Amino acid sequence: MKDTDEADRHSGAAGPPAFRAAVDALRACRLRPQVEVEPTPAPQRLAPYAYALEAVVVDGDQELADGRLVLLHDPAGHDAWRGTFRLVTLVRAELEPEMAADPLLPEVCWSWLTGALQARGLGYGEPSGTVTRASSHYFGGLADRPSASQIEIRASWTPREGLGGVPDAAAHLASWCDLLAQVGGLPPAGPGDASVVTLPQRRGPQSR
User: Fold this and answer.
1) Does a cis peptide bond (omega within 30 degrees of 0) precede residue 200?
2) pLDDT at 191
3) Is 48 helix (H, G, I), strand (E, B) or coil?
């Protein structure tokens, strides 16, 4: 019974009304079709309640970026969060050589995160994170592979809570998907790109 209760706490199936409402909003959110999202097991030691999603940005049969978003909830509040909810994310994408060489790339990627939140008018606090740029060079039996570079954004922020102590989880998810798409090199979403794919969605054969 303990294992079942623990699984429920981290799947959105149990928890305070505010947490369940936020999870329901994530599940009902509609996104642009190039971003495919599905639930994934949530970490169990970061907060009393957690719910996680993973996403991949696709263009035809090509993956452009991928990431994970975790919604954390502590009904008692958390001093470091300055709230009862926290969003934690990881975003990754391969880079073109020209972009990888840009010395301002980390600052630009961080501005994409904050800009995605601001573009949707979302209130948030206590943002923190890292932007890591990595390069891989191949030798020996792998010497025929071209060098590759990757950007990785790890970040967290506290969403502003609305009525009933519930944050606008769907809007934060949409802004996170905007970030994923931008890191993956997609153009901004047009009027017809929103409200297309309903969560949760299974990835097709082309994704991984």
Assistant:
1) yes
2) 44
3) coil
For residues 137 and 40, give the distance between their C-alpha atoms in angstroms, rounded to a whole number. Answer: 32
The CA distance from 89 to 37, in Å, is 14
On whether residue 119 sits in a domain, the answer given is yes
Note the pLDDT tens digit of each residue in 101-132.
677 888 989 999 999 999 999 999 999 999 98
Contact 33, 198 (CB under 8 A): no
| 197 occurs within a structural domain | no
Helix extents (H) in 45-194: 97-100, 105-119, 169-183
Beta bridge partners of 71: 51, 87
Where in the chain does DSSP place strands (E)?
30-31, 35-40, 49-59, 62-78, 83-95, 124-136, 148-159, 197-198
The residue range of the domain holding 141 is 2-187
Residue 170 domain-assigned (yes or no) = yes
The number of distinct structural domains making up the chain is: 1
